[in-house]
Amino acid sequence: MGTTKRVAIYDPLPRICGPTTWAQNLREGFRKLGHSARVVTFTKSGKPSANWGIPGVKGGWGWSPYAPDFVAKFSEGSAVLDGYDLVILPEPKCPTADNPAKKTGETPGYIRVLQQTKTPWATALHGASAQYENARAPFLDELLDTTPGFSRI
């Protein structure tokens, strides 16, 4: 089957959404293929949100029934990802990070982490093309054009 790979599935902000669910399923698929795979994320404090990993229905975008396998500080993010052979970003936009960044004019933290890692990374699209227009994915061009590890296969 080949060499076991270390795969980080980087879910910037676990929330109730299809890409977060896909990240969990993708992790299990990589594990069944014999790879070491973890869902990872980064927060300002390096601590997981109290709203992650809560079964059942709870309101709000910040809630997720899934908790990531590993959480570290944003400032450690690129070094953490450098310890993997491949990073997969479940979706190349994150509205809960993009919207506040639009207001401040800053690059969202999840993009800064990917700009600094040396590990190759890939992503997937989970919606119709209109979902990735500038109004809904305002940092998409920056993400794809300024992250040297992005795999354009």
Describe what this molecule looks like in 3D.
By secondary structure, the protein is an alpha/beta fold. It has helices at 18-32, 77-81, 95-104, 109-116, 140-146; strands at 6-10, 36-43, 70-73, 86-89, 121-123. A 5-stranded parallel sheet has the order 3-2-1-4-5. The radius of gyration is 15 Å and the shape is globular. The model has no long low-confidence stretch (mean pLDDT 92). The two termini are 22 Å apart. Strand 1 (6-10), helix 1 (18-32) and strand 2 form a beta-alpha-beta unit.
Any chance you could write out the topology, listing elements then pairs?
Elements: E1 6-10, H1 18-32, E2 36-43, E3 70-73, H2 77-81, E4 86-89, H3 95-104, H4 109-116, E5 121-123, H5 140-146
Parallel strand pairs: 1-2, 1-4, 2-3, 4-5
Share of helical residues? 25-40%
Strand segment tally: 5
Rg for CA atoms: 15 Å
* Fraction in beta strands: 15-25%
| Structure class | alpha/beta
| Spans of at least 5 consecutive residues with low confidence | none
Q: Give the SSE order as H and E letters.
A: EHEEHEHHEH
**Spatial order of strands in the largest sheet:** 3-2-1-4-5
Number of continuous helical runs = 5
Distance between the termini: 22 Å
Mean pLDDT: 92
Largest sheet: 5 strands, parallel
Anisotropy-based shape: globular
Give a quick set of tags describing it.
single chain, 153 residues, alpha/beta, 5-stranded parallel beta sheet, 29% helix, globular
